[in-house]
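Page 37, top half.
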Amino acid sequence: MLKITTTRRGFMQLGAASAAALTIGGSLAALTGCSKAPAANGYSVLRDGDLTFLTAIAPVILSDSYPGTLGSQAQERLLHALDRLTGTLQDYSRSQLLMLLDVMQVAPLRALMGAQWASWEEVSADDTEAFLQDWKHSRIQLKRMGYGSLCKLLTMCWYSQPETFISTGYPGAPKKIPA
C-alpha cells in the first residue's frame, strides 16, 4: 500500500505545482476562447461544446431512464431544461458551472482531469462511465464536487419533465379543486 508522508516542503511543492497547473489551464482556456464562446443557437447560456459534453454524459448518468418516454425528444428537452436552469443560477454559480464546462472542452485540461483526450463525440459510454466513477470516488474534493453538481443538475432537469413523473411514481402536481 502506498504511504503518503506529508512534509512542509512537499506541501509547498504541491501548492506551487497546483497554482502553476491552474494558471496554465486558465490561460489555455482563455487562449482557445471557449469561455467567451457565444451561446449555441436556440440556447441562452449553454454553448456548443457544453451541449456536446452534456449529451455524452446524460445517458450514463441517467442510465435506464434515458431517453425513456420522451424518445427522440429526450436530448433536446433535457438540454433546454438545463439551459433554463443555468440561466436562473446566480452569477457566481453560473460562472463556476461554465468554468467546469470549459475545462471539459479543452483536451489537455480534460486529460489532466482524468477524462479522455478525444472529443466527447468520440468517447464511448464505457469510457464516460469510467471517467464519472473516477470523479465520484476521487480523493480530490473538487472532482467529487464536480461529479455531484453535474449529476444533480442533470437529474433535476430530467425528472422535472412531466413525462418522466411516472418512472418515479410521482402522480404529478395536485389539481386545483374549485371551491
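Page 37, bottom half:
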Amino acid sequence: MTSDAVEKKEKESVKFFKFNKDTSEFEEIPAASIPPEGIKKVLQEHRADSYAIFQVPYIVWLYHGPETSVQTKFVSARTISKLRDDIMIGAKIMTVDEGSEPLPFKFVTKMADPADFGIEKGTAEYKPAYTGSAEDLTKIEKMSLEKVSLLLEQIPTPNGFEREVIIHDNSIYAVKNARRSFMGSEIEEIELIPLPKGTRVESGTYMAEELSPRLYFENNKLLLIELLRKTPERVKQETLFNKIDKNA
C-alpha cells in the first residue's frame, strides 16, 4: 500500500467532533473541513473548546483546550460516553490536555510525524494497542453484554414474573440468574447466554406463547426487549434455547 493510500485510509477512519456548549452535544466536523495541516490546526485556534477524536475502531480521544472551562470539561466528559456507544461501543476513552499529549494522539492530529520517530505509517507500532482484531471484537461484544446485564440488574421485574429471553441489537439471548452472598447481602447477577454456535433459527414468524414482552427505550431508541414469563406456572418449554444448559 502506498503512503498516499495509507494516509487516505487513516483519514477515513478518523471522526472529529466539537462539543457545542449551547446544546451540550458533540457535533461532527466533516473531513473536508479539516485543514491540510491536520486536526492540530483546529485545536490550536480554538483553545477554549473540547473535541472528540474517534480512531475507528481503536480509541476515543477527548481533548480539552488550555482555556476550556471546568463546566465544559465536566459536561463534555459526561456526554462522550453516549457518543462512544453510538459509534463504537466498548472503545476506550482517553482524556488529553494540552502539554500531556501521548504520541498516538500527536500522530492522528498531525502534531508529530511518525517518520521522525522511525515509525512507518500503517505498521503495528503506529497503531494503538486495540487493533480491531477478532479477539478485540469479541471483547467489545462481551463488554456490550455486560453493560446490558448491569442495566437489567437495575430494572426490577414485575411481581410474579421472571426474565426468559432478551432481544438486544438484533440478537437473542437466554437469561441465566445467579445469586451470591457478598458482605452479608444477597446479590443477583444476570448473565446473557447467546444461541449455541451453529444453531440456525429458521426464517419466519414466531409467537411468544405464555411470554409477556416489555420494551426498554433510551434516548428515543429501542435498546432491548424482554420476554417475561409468569413464575407460578413456569414449566419447561421447548424454546430456541432448549439446547442450552442454563446450569452451566
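Margin note: Strands lie at 14-20, 25-29, 50-55, 59-64, 92-97, 161-168, 171-182, 185-194, 211-218, 221-230.
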